[in-house]
Amino acid sequence: MKKLALHWQILIGMALGIAWGMAASYLGFVDFTLAWIQPFGVIFINLLKLIAVPLVLVSLITGVSSLSDISRLSRIGSKTISIYLGTTVLAVTLGLVLVNIFDPGKAFSPEKREEFKEQFASTTVQKSSDAAAVEQQGPLQPLVDIVPSNIFGSLTDNGAMLQVIFFALLFGIALIMIPPDKAAPVNDFFEGVNLVILKIVDIIMKTAPYGVFALLAGLVVDFAGDDPGSAVELLLVLGYYCLVVIAGLATMIFIVYPLLVVFIGKTKYKSFFEGIFPAQMLAFSTSSSAATLPVTMECAEKNLGINKEITSFVLPLGATINMDGTSLYQAVAAIFIAQAYGIELDIMAQLGIVMTATLASIGAAAVPGAGTVMLVIVLQQAGIPVEGIALILAPDRILDMCRTTVNVTGDATVAMLVARTEGQLHPPKEITTT
Questions:
Q1: Minimal CB count within 10 Å: which of 116, 152, 239, 306?
Q2: Could you tell me if residue 159 is inside a domain?
Q3: Residue 178: CB partners within 8 Å, gap ≥ 6?
Q4: Residue 429 resides in a domain
Q5: Does 430 reside within a domain?
């Protein structure tokens, strides 16, 4: 018998977790659930936190060092990275605008938000203390904080992820600048470690159905207590949150990218989407930019008429560092969780989310589940309770499918823009949709 795909296993785990939580509230198994089931959810969260730092460090070093001959590709490379970073910042900003307008986390009743706030009162107090300490610092202190004084100390603290990202960028750039024969063994080492890290992520994601079950069971029990009707409120609010995320992703894929394609890429809206459609569908079904990459390259070359020299550089790099959909989702999810816990984030904190989500997207692996790992980083950097990730894991698989589609579409869009500005965009061949 064929084994169920992981996304179906996660959805089943989600449904069973909710059902168990509801039943436990009705039948008086609350204490049993909290003592014997919820801890497995905590273990799952710890596994995500465990892999976060090495995933970012190694993925980012390999991504930057893949530029290889920087003298030949300096113009194309700088142009590509600039556009990638620009679209990512735009996506994160769009997510923040939408989540602040619609306030999905505030759809929880005031009483429930007060419960969350009390549950994590110590975190909130600590955040307030940190904010007061920041007020005593100079305007350039955030810049100072990004540069580590001891990288090994930063590697042991998930909250210092910006320092890890800074070091990885510096290391990757230096790796490009040394003689290729000296850099080759180092590149091989990190590529090998990167494969190991991705395999660990794969192993962790195999436990996701059980982790989601335990998290959802514990969350529903925590939320509902002796009043199972309260769980209905949770499901409605999660639906509202999903609509906000999907609205942001739809804006990127149906408004932002088409505008770039039409006005800069000088290509018809319909032609672009017909050309990239096979890659979009594969991205939707696999939730993996890396798995979709061969199809994305084929569609870009055959259907969109982009020169192979551009696609062979821009698209693999995009699969590593360009995660517009993931970044938008992280921005919405982070603010949603903060709102659910009654934590008010000022403009500086939200700008910090923009920076962290943008830089973290550079180190996000192009595999299912990596976005969740990156969200842990964003939450920790912003001082938002990481436990709140349980609130958004239930619908995450469906959202992962949608945001991966946006990621792949964004890669193809940037490839087209770079090809147009380099004079390497030619009339496409007959489009194949099979």
A1: 152
A2: yes
A3: none
A4: no
A5: no
CA distances from 234 to 36, 87, 209, 221, 333 (A): 23, 33, 20, 11, 15
| C-beta of residue 100 within 8 angstroms of C-beta of residue 335 | yes
| Domain around 185 | 6-421
427 found inside a domain: no
Model-level pTM? 0.64
Q: What is the CATH number of the domain that holds 40?
A: 1.10.3860
Contact of 345 with 385, CB cutoff 8 Å: no
User: Which string of DSSP letters, residue by residue, matches 301-354?
Assistant: IIIS-B-HHHHHHHHHHHHHH--HHHHHHHHHHHHHHHHHTT----HHHHHHHH
pLDDT digits (tens, 9 = 90+) for 33-87: 888 998 998 888 778 778 767 877 887 787 677 656 566 557 777 888 889 889 9
Question: CA nearest 380: which of 120, 53, 92, 159?
Answer: 159
By residue count, the chain amounts to 434
Number of domains composing the chain: 1
Report d(CA 198, CA 89) in Å as an integer: 26
